[in-house]
Amino acid sequence: MDDLLAELRTWLSDALPKWKAKWNGDTSWDALCDWQRMMAEGKWATASWPVEYGGRGLGTMDVLAIEDVVAASGAPQIPGMIGLKNVAPTLMKFGNDEQRKSVVRIGSTDEVWCQGFSEPGAGSDLANVRASGRLEGDEFVINGQKVWTSNGMHASHMQLLARTNPDAPKHKGISAITLSMKTPGVEVRPIKQINGGAEFAEVFFTDVRVPVANLLGPLHEGWMVTMTTLGHERAGVAVFAGRLEQRIRGLIEDVAKGDTRISPVVADELAEMYVEARVLGAMARQMLNKIAQGGTPSSEQSVIKMVWSELSQRVDTVVMGLAGVEGVTGDNHAAALGYLSARSATIAAGTSDIVKNIIGDRVLGLPRD
Ligand SMILES: Cc1cc2nc3c(=O)[nH]c(=O)nc-3n(C[C@H](O)[C@H](O)[C@H](O)COP(=O)(O)OP(=O)(O)OC[C@H]3O[C@@H](n4cnc5c(N)ncnc54)[C@H](O)[C@@H]3O)c2cc1C
Predict the structure, then answer these.
(1) Mean pLDDT value across residues 223-238
(2) Rounded CA separation 181/183 (Å)
(3) Helix, coil or strand: residue 241
(4) Which of 5, 6, 40, 53 could form a disulfide with 45 if both were Cys (CB 3.0 to 4.6 A apart)?
(5) Cα separation of the two ends of the chain
(6) Dihedral angle computed from the Cα positions of residues 94, 47, 285 and 277, in that order, rounded to the nearest 10 degrees
(7) pLDDT in tens, 105-137
(8) Shortest CA distance to 266 belongs to which of 325, 308, 315?
């Protein structure tokens, strides 16, 4: 692994300054896509993908080490994570020849994919989806609404979950369907968030017709396909857990450098959070090892998700406290934005309530009534 990381550091020392010089502080969507394109050309963004898709065929632990080095270099976050990490592996597993052609284009950002799963009334209870995909001849006719579609405004394509058999039991009558966001009848409306951004969209479908060849996986088996996609999303939480440890360590280093804003009480809290983050990081690595050996993460993923999301909110609360009034009202209100953005951590990829239900049920074996 040492050789691999040395190659990465050499590549970053060349590529990152070139990207920064080209975009001169611009962190717009286009600038970030350009960075992802460079990362994919270097086979770093796609390191986990098989070689035939432009990857390096590396295992989870190698990929985690790569992501740590990239994060430590100060490189920006690549924008097409949903496509790269969640959709592309699903297309590789379930896609037909045509659908699998999208994988390489996801790496280069020629295609940006979003996940159209949640709906009003189908979030935690995802199997409740009501968007319909009626099979009519050799086409699906899609009607309904999706919500909280991350990157919906930028996306060129969607992995959609639609009800294709209204008469079957909840989990049995839904299918995964791929579609271009330019298909007539698709309307995307941005949702403004409390942090001022609009990273989500509502997506409306009115008599949207797509060929039956856009079915992803078997008909009416969309639940299984979507659980594969969400399995990749949930494994990604382990990566965030590792990042949190790095972030708290950074704050502790500020204490060591004599940052006078940090009182003994805050220093104590940082130390406590660091210990928790270390334990969390160890659990996350253990889980990734299990996945690398072909195992399926289950209950441990829920514990990692719960602790990571709640701990990351505590960290952002401390950071905002340290920034003081200036951090909320000043030109540089990054601390306040971080605090507000962190609210979503306990909702995305399973709310804390749902995660606690799973822990109570599957880990602790608590009675249901
Ligand atoms: C940052 C972020 C990105 C997202 N990206 C996407 C995306 O790209 N695509 C997509 O399809 N969706 C996306 N989502 C949506 C996300 O999957 C849902 O928000 C999540 O599943 C919760 O569903 P909901 O918002 O409908 O809340 P609800 O399910 O309506 O829940 C409302 C409240 O009730 C509680 N609750 C619900 N059921 C139970 C229960 N059985 N027991 C106890 N409490 C319960 C919940 O914990 C919550 O507090 C994203 C969300 C966030 C925050």
Answers:
(1) 86
(2) 5
(3) helix
(4) 40
(5) 50
(6) -110
(7) 999 999 999 999 999 999 999 999 999 999 999
(8) 315
Beta carbons of 349 and 234 less than 8 angstroms apart: yes
**Domains of the chain, start order:** 2-79 (no CATH), 113-219 (2.40.110.10), 224-363 (1.20.140.10)
Q: Ligand 1 pocket check: which of 351, 352, 368 to mutate, most ligand atoms within 8 Å of Cβ?
A: 351
Residue 88 to residues 96, 203, 340, 367: CA-CA distances in angstroms?
A: 13, 21, 30, 39
In residues, how long is the chain?
Answer: 369
Q: Are 63 and 50 in contact (CB under 8 A)?
A: no
137 burial via Cβ count (<10 Å: 0-12, 13-18, 19+): exposed
Environment class of 365 (CB within 10 Å of its CB; exposed 0-12, middle 13-18, buried 19+): exposed
According to DSSP, the β-strands at 139-150 and 157-163 are unpaired
Helix (H) / strand (E) element for 364: namely: none
Task: Give me the pLDDT at residue 297, please.
Answer: 65
Structure token digits, residue 310? 């709640």
| Contact indicator for 144, 202 with CB cutoff of 8 Å | no
* Ligand 1: centre distance to CA 158 (Å): 19
pLDDT at 332: 65
CB 79 within 8 A of CB 33: yes
How far, in whole angstroms, is CA 232 from its chain's centroid?
A: 9
On whether the CB atoms of residues 73 and 16 are closer than 8 A, the answer is yes
Among 56-60, 147-151, 301-305, name the most confident range.
Answer: 147-151
The answer to whether the CB of 123 is under 6 A from ligand 1 is yes
Take atom 18 of ligand 1 and give the residue whose Cα is closest. 123
Q: What distance in angstroms lies between residue 219's CA and the mean position of ligand 1's atoms?
A: 26
- Which pTM does this prediction carry? 0.92
The radius of gyration computed from the CA coordinates of the chain, to the nearest angstrom, equals: 21
User: What mean pLDDT comes out for the span 256-285?
Assistant: 86
What's the gap between Cα 113 and its chain centre? 12
CA 61 vs CA 22, 67, 239, 246: distances in Å: 32, 10, 10, 17
